[in-house]
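Internal tracking record. Fields below are filled automatically when a chain is submitted to the structure queue. Please do not edit lines marked as system-generated. If the sequence contains nonstandard residues, flag them in the REMARKS field before resubmitting.
Queue: standard
Priority: normal
Entity type: single polypeptide chain
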Amino acid sequence: MSVPRPHVVVLMGGWANERPVSLMSGSGVADALESRGYRVTRIDMDRQVAARLAEAAPDVVFNALHGVPGEDGTVQGMLDLMGIPYTHSGLATSVIAIDKELTKQALVPHGVPMPGGRIVASEELYERDPLARPYVLKPVNEGSSVGVAIVTDESNYGNPIRRDVAGPWQQFDHLLAEPFIRGLELTTAVIDGADGPRALAVTELRPKSGFYDFDAKYTDGMTEHICPADIPENITALCKKYALDAHHLLGCKGTSRTDFRWDDDLGEDGLFVLETNTQPGMTPLSLVPEQARYCGMDYADLVEAIVAEALRSAAAAGKDAARGND
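SYSTEM-GENERATED OUTPUT FOLLOWS
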C-alpha cells in the first residue's frame, strides 16, 4: 500500500514589493506538487493567515513568499509558534540574511569577502556623497534589487543628489552605500539534501541594458543567463565555496542563492559576495530552478527536494526535543 503524500500549504503573495514574483513562484510550486500527487492548499497571505493555516492544518508549509514579512523572520516566527514545519530558513537566519549589514557582520569575520560601505541617512545624500563615485545605494532589507541606484559622475541624480529626483532616497529613511564593483554579475545556488548542502553551479547574468535590477530579473528577454558561467575554474570553485560558507554561517535551510560581483581584472581578489537570498524565486525565469536543471534535476524534483528537507529537519528537531526532555 502506497504512503499518502503530505498535505502542503503553498504560502504566497502577501503585500511586499515582490508580491507578483511570489504569486508566480507559488503557482509554479503548487502545480508541481499537484503533478506529483500531493494534496495542495494555496493561500495568498493576508492578515488572517494564521486562522487560515489553522483551518487548513497542513503537514508542512512551502514558503513561497518574497520580501517582508515572509522572508524577514515574521512568518517563520508565526509558524514556529503554531508548530507547523515549513520550507527554507528559520527565524534567526531570516532576520540576519535579509539585513545586508547584519549579513556582513556574520560573514566577513569568517573570510567571506563583501564590499565595504556604511549605512547613511537619506537626508545626508542631499548634502554630499557618502562615498567616492561610482557607488551603489540600496535598502538595507529589501531583495530582488528593489530600490537599488548606481550613482556615477554621469548619472542624472545631480551632485549632490537632488531631492526631486526619483530614487530609493525618496522611499527609505536609511540606505546602505557601497563602492560600485565593476565586472560580472554571478550567482550560485545551494540546496540541502540527505547528504548535506551542495552548490549547484555558477550563472553569469548579462542584462540587455542597464544593470540587473527588478525588471531585468523578472521580465522575459531582458537578461541573458549563461549557465554555467564562462569564467576560470578557480573563480567557479571560489563562488561555490563562498556560497556554501554563507549557507552554513547564516544557518540557511532548504535552498539559498548567493549573489556576487567579480572584477575580472583583479582575479580572485576581485570576487565579492553581495547578499544571500534565503528564499530564492521559483518562477520560470528564476535561477535556482535553472541551475538545478543544469545539474539534472527538473522543477518538480527540486520542489519535492525542498519539501523533503523541511520534513526531515522537522523530524530531526522533534527527536532532539524528545532527547532534551529525557
